Amino acid sequence: MRAVPVLSVVVATASGAVLKTRTGWPSDLAGLVVDRSDPTFSTLSARWSSYDAPTFSQVFAPANEDELAAGLNYMTCNGLPFLAKSGGHGYSVDLQVVQNGVLISMENFNYTVVNSDLTATVGAGATFNDVVQVVGAAKREMTVGSCPCVGATGAYLGGGVGRLQGMHGLASDGVRKIRMALWNGTIIETSDSVNSDLFWGMRGAGQNFGFVIETTFETYPQTNDGNNYESQLVFNISQLGTVVDTVNSLLPLDPKLALVTIVGADSTTLETLLLLNLVYAGPENEGREYSKLFSNYSLSNTETILTYAELPTKSAGGFNNVKCIKGHRQDQYGISMKTIDKGAFMQMANEYTELIQANPLLNASAFLVETFGVQAIDALGDEYSAFPHRGRINNFLEINVSFDDDSVAAAGDAWGKKWRDNFATPEISGYDSMVVYQNYGHGDEALSALYGADDWRHERLTALKQSYDPRGVFSAYHAVPQSLEDWS
């Protein structure tokens, strides 16, 4: 990590030297910066996960792109490490490389506009929930993630998976234009026709090359007038094998169908719970046919109709709102699987039960599998964008070790890592190499697991890094190497 220099007061002179404040920032930017002594600092700098997390000594909140550009230039020239925050949901342990850095708050860039051509321009401060309220009101839709509090920009930089990906592709597949700032504050645009090399890299590896200001997405007419059938099913854990068999029998998933299989614990009794959230972007009668495959052996089945704009906050009984609470330790691992290996999944559940019983302070921990359609993703060629996993993301296993008391950290982490590694083996994952959607990465994976193993990908990404981030200032999150020899 770059050292943070001690900056002294510089007095303006007739020659035009820039006046700096006691914090070291130029006077025209100093009013946009708060430090730990400010009562708003804790709220502004709060992140979803406090596990192996970055720390900050200042928060910089630009109000427009000129202030952002000037701030980037100042921080880079003075060796100040920084991170941007929209949703603040990133949890990779790579982020802890930033200590006592500057958090760039994008709260003033929280906007979503549906344009006359029915594209949507989204500011870097908008969350998924912000986006769907505006896009949904215009009777349009686009792929967004399931969690409402995740930053929409940060998510697509790694690809952008979501329930509608079977119909519309990844969130990044719908990107049509990006306005962004480079390391020195230079503002540029990227698209298929302008800076197209960078445009390729921004969609799947975009955290590495610059700072996004706003993004323009294609949107689509709402499916079924924006109405989604939801079935929230609860099972006895003894039915886990049957649930897995049923999910596997539906692969490849109907592009309108989305399944999330969740294993968690009752916080009071510590009993292991099994839930399945089923969402169908189509008529209720069609969705119910899928639900019937599970409901005849479930303990309960709660059916609702939710609009596109309601899904992020109301699906799964509002479960995602609880998971948006900031400040807890969130130690996460992820892996992609061709099918769900029933034997391994059941053994994982057994060991989860043992883990929680032995460590009750881990009772908020859970693991889940997202199973979404892949048709629109796989219809695009491997070279379409920097996203490397087309044809290899049938199921995402996400392991969430959640706690507040560090006395259980080692036990929880050991369990999470063990099962990520188990499911990464070709015999269990169904893929010949480790496949990790980088937004679900822990930070200890080989870079080839995140960005693909093809030499041409490494060469293209490293060339972009050398061209657009020659000083390596955008290297706190799954950093693309400056040298080909450093790929793993």
Automatic annotation (TrEMBL):
Domain of life: Eukaryota
Keyword Oxidoreductase included in the entry's annotation: yes
Pfam families: BBE, FAD_binding_4
Species, as recorded: Xylaria arbuscula
Protein name: FAD-binding PCMH-type domain-containing protein
Similarity comment text for this entry: Belongs to the oxygen-dependent FAD-linked oxidoreductase family.
Cofactor: FAD
Alphabetical UniProt keywords: FAD, Flavoprotein, Oxidoreductase
InterPro entries: BBE, FAD-bd_PCMH, FAD-bd_PCMH-like_sf, FAD-bd_PCMH_sub2, FAD-linked_Oxidoreductase, Oxid_FAD_bind_N
GO molecular function: FAD binding; oxidoreductase activity
Domain FAD-binding PCMH-type: 51-222
